[in-house]
Design goal:
Structural class of chain B: alpha/beta
Number of domains of chain B: 1
Order of helices and strands of chain B: HHEHHEHEHEEEHHEHEHHH
Distance between the termini of chain A: 38 Å
Number of helices of chain A: 12
Strand content of chain A: 15-25%
Strand content of chain B: 5-15%
Largest sheet of chain B: 6 strands, parallel
Strand order of the largest sheet of chain A: 3-2-4-5-7-6-12
CATH topology of chain B: Rossmann fold
Strand order of the largest sheet of chain B: 2-1-3-4-8-7
Shape of chain B: globular
Shape of chain A: globular
CATH topology of the largest domain in chain A: Rossmann fold
CATH superfamily of chain B: Thiamin diphosphate (ThDP)-binding fold, Pyr/PP domains
CATH superfamily of the largest domain in chain A: Thiamin diphosphate (ThDP)-binding fold, Pyr/PP domains
Radius of gyration of chain A: 20 Å
Number of strands of chain A: 14
Largest sheet of chain A: 7 strands, mixed
Radius of gyration of chain B: 20 Å
CATH architecture of chain B: 3-Layer(aba) Sandwich
Oligomer: heterodimer
CATH class of the largest domain in chain A: Alpha Beta
Structural class of chain A: alpha/beta
Number of domains of chain A: 2
Helix content of chain A: 25-40%
Distance between the termini of chain B: 54 Å
Order of helices and strands of chain A: EHEHEHEHHEHEHEEEEHEEHEHEHH
Largest interface: A-B, 46 and 48 residues
Chain lengths: 327, 339
């Protein structure tokens, strides 16, 4: 095992898959000569050359579509968005072409493509660089949506995503690129569509994904000291959703709180909550609660940014209400 | 009227190059398209075909010439007005008609309909105006990536698409990366009901726009099969040799509304009548008769044969099974397997 940063784990996944399959290439803004806006692709141009590590103009709609066309004709592109906020100008290509092609063409053309890059809030980048896109894209049949929380999962899931024959949105987080974690020396894959219990507990289930998993794990530590045993589930893949793992946990704990960095209305938490009540309503001893980003565009000021995002304090308060118990 | 300067070519030499056989094949294909569209339109008006139906009538010479000059072994991309290109690339009239009827044995299993037809080399009829142009650029990227020397990507778009942003992003990247792509603007004069002059600040779309991307831009007469043939043949060779994209506008006029449900009230009868005087099928027929390659009787025979094929396709579609509702949720995702 080696202790490596998230960005290194992602780079290893890209590098290994490019070694394995000559059809895999990376394309995006600043991925080559600049070595990646967040250094995920550092050194890759030197190793692979400009044919397989391709800088683009600032044309997300264009290069997303180019990638889809390349995927339909036999290549396996990995398209980097410098921020998933910029994927909005490519939404037509992602939604109308990538997501629908295999079904719409009567199985004639599949679109094996990965769109990856940082999602959600960073540090004070205001409204247009902080949006969480997973709820928007998870509404589209035909897309796989992945959001890992740690280097191990990031590497294993990115490798699985590149090998998958469908369009995958692979959501990273700017604030997590420097996070370190243990990654095996030998090759491994993490399967798509499988959630993971990252902290075992018996009193309440916390369900989250991406960077918010860390907050949930901190909450679990805090509450353990107070005699409350929290189970934390990392979704890892948002779509397809692994409801079985969630259900198993809620049947054990009887309480569920969902923590999501994205907005409240029609968020991932809404869907998870619905599926919990659909699948194990009778196991619940209290209404399902959620902690999400409040219904505002992201403000720039630190004071406001903190207020709109889920925090440890808000999670603790929500757990208190859910368990009807003073913490 | 716009004073176009069409791509210059030697008519007699082009006629000689194509020969009687080649012209006969082209005429036959154009008649198949015309008859297919005519029968399918009748079915649409009877309520047997749903959704949107965009007829290619009036534009037959363009894609026929493209196919005859470049051959099927390229990557082809087009708009929702896609019945003709699917036919030209070998989709059978039966499978296309079945698709229009929404049947299980349709070209796309009854999931795509009129706007989304495919072959092993046709990446689709695309439904969002301009959205297909980056896709074709990606196909050209693959050809370049795999270093395939004898293929190009051919991308059709309407004059309306030339107002879309995706198109310019694609033009820029195709030129920047030197991708073997022929971008064809089929100017049928109308972005739905909005005339070219009310959609675009400039005319001569290829010649003006190409310059900004360092591409060559040309104009062809879309009603004249020979103009299309000579132009496509030269430009195809140029792309194979130079390995960079070219933009071409083919001036045409559709004879029907934007879709069949559009009565085209925005176009005067005189304008349509004037356009139809240059019906590409009639022009080709007259040319062939004047050269002694064809007589009226043979033409009628050909037309009748193509009509029978279209009628047969309708019969086939009508007697074909509906998709089993149990299959509804199948194939949203491609299976894993060779990856």
């Amino acid at each position: 095992m080696a202790l490596i940063e998230m960005r290194e784990a992602l780079r290893q996944a890209l590098d290994e898959e490019m070694t394995r399959d000559s059809r895999v290439f990376i394309m995006g803004e600043e991925v080559a000569e600049y070595n990646g806006a967040y250094k995920v692709t550092k050194g890759m141009l030197d190793k692979w050359g400009p044919k397989r590590v391709v800088d683009t103009p600032i044309s997300e709609n264009g290069f997303a579509g180019l990638g889809i066309g390349a995927a339909m004709t036999g290549l396996r592109p990995v398209i980097e968005f410098m921020s998933f906020n910029f994927s909005f100008v490519a939404a037509d290509q992602i939604i109308s072409n990538a997501a629908k092609m295999y079904y719409m063409s009567g199985n004639r053309f599949s679109v094996p493509i990965v769109f990856r890059g940082p999602n959600g809030a960073a540090a004070q980048v205001s409204s247009q660089h902080s949006h969480c896109v997973e709820a928007i894209y998870s509404n589209i049949p035909g897309l796989i949506v992945i959001a890992p929380s740690n280097p191990y999962d990031a590497k294993g899931l990115l490798k699985s995503a590149i090998r998958n024959n469908n369009p995958v949105l692979f959501l990273e987080n700017e604030l997590s690129y420097g996070d370190k974690g243990e990654v095996p020396e030998e090759e491994y894959l993490v399967p798509i569509g499988v959630a993971k219990v990252v902290t075992e507990g018996k009193d309440i289930t916390l369900i989250s994904h991406s960077r918010m998993v860390k907050l949930c794990q901190e909450v679990a530590v805090t509450l353990k000291a107070k005699g409350i045993s929290v189970e934390v589930i990392d979704l890892r893949t948002i779509k397809p959703l692994d409801i079985a793992t969630i259900k198993k946990s809620v049947e054990k704990t009887h309480f569920a709180v969902i923590v999501e960095e994205g907005h409240l209305f029609t968020g991932i938490a809404s869907e998870v909550a619905f599926q919990i009540q659909d699948g194990c309503f009778e196991s619940l001893d209290a209404p399902i609660a959620r902690v999400c980003q409040r219904e505002t565009p992201m403000a720039y000021s630190k004071a406001l940014e903190k207020e709109t995002m889920p925090t440890i304090e808000r999670i603790l308060k929500t757990i208190e209400t859910t368990l009807s118990r003073k913490i | 009227m716009i004073d176009y300067s069409f791509f210059p070519f030697d008519r007699e030499k082009t006629l000689g190059d194509i020969g009687k056989e080649g012209l006969t094949q082209a005429l036959q294909k154009m008649l198949l398209i015309r008859n297919f569209e005519t029968r399918a339109e009748a079915c649409y008006l009877q309520g047997k075909i749903g959704g949107f139906f965009h007829s290619y009538i009036g534009q037959e010479a363009i894609q026929t010439a493209a196919l005859m000059t470049m051959g099927p072994k390229n990557w082809w991309v087009t708009t929702y007005r896609c019945h003709a290109l699917a036919l030209l690339l070998g989709a059978t009239p039966e499978e296309i008609m079945s698709e229009l009827f929404g049947r299980a044995n349709g070209n796309a299993k009854g999931r795509g309909g009129s706007m989304h037809l495919y072959t092993d080399r046709l990446l689709g009829g695309f439904g969002i105006v301009g959205g297909q142009v980056p896709i074709a650029t990606g196909a050209a990227f693959t050809i370049s990536y795999l270093d395939i020397k004898d293929e190009i990507a051919v991308c059709f778009m309407g004059d309306g698409a030339v107002a879309q942003g995706a198109v310019y992003e694609a033009f820029n990247m195709a030129a920047l990366y030197k991708l073997p792509c022929l971008f064809v603007i089929e100017n049928n004069q109308w972005s739905m009901g909005t005339h070219l002059s009310r959609s675009h600040a400039v005319d001569k779309l290829a010649e003006t726009k190409a310059q900004g991307f360092g591409m060559e831009g040309y104009t062809l007469d879309g009603m004249d099969y020979l103009s299309c043939y000579a132009g496509f043949k030269t430009l195809h060779q140029k792309i194979l040799t130079d390995r960079k994209p070219i933009l071409v506008e083919v001036v045409s006029e559709r004879f029907k509304g934007h879709s069949i449900s559009d009565p085209a009230l925005y176009r005067s009868k005189e304008t349509l009548k004037h356009a139809m005087e240059r019906d590409p099928i009639v022009l080709l027929k007259n040319l062939m008769i004047s050269k002694g390659f064809l007589d009226e009787e043979t033409f009628k025979e050909m037309d009748k044969k193509m009509r029978e094929i279209a009628v047969h396709a309708v019969d086939h579609a009508e007697s074909s099974p509906w998709p089993d509702p149990k299959t509804l949720e199948q194939d949203v995702f491609a299976p894993s397997g060779r990856s």
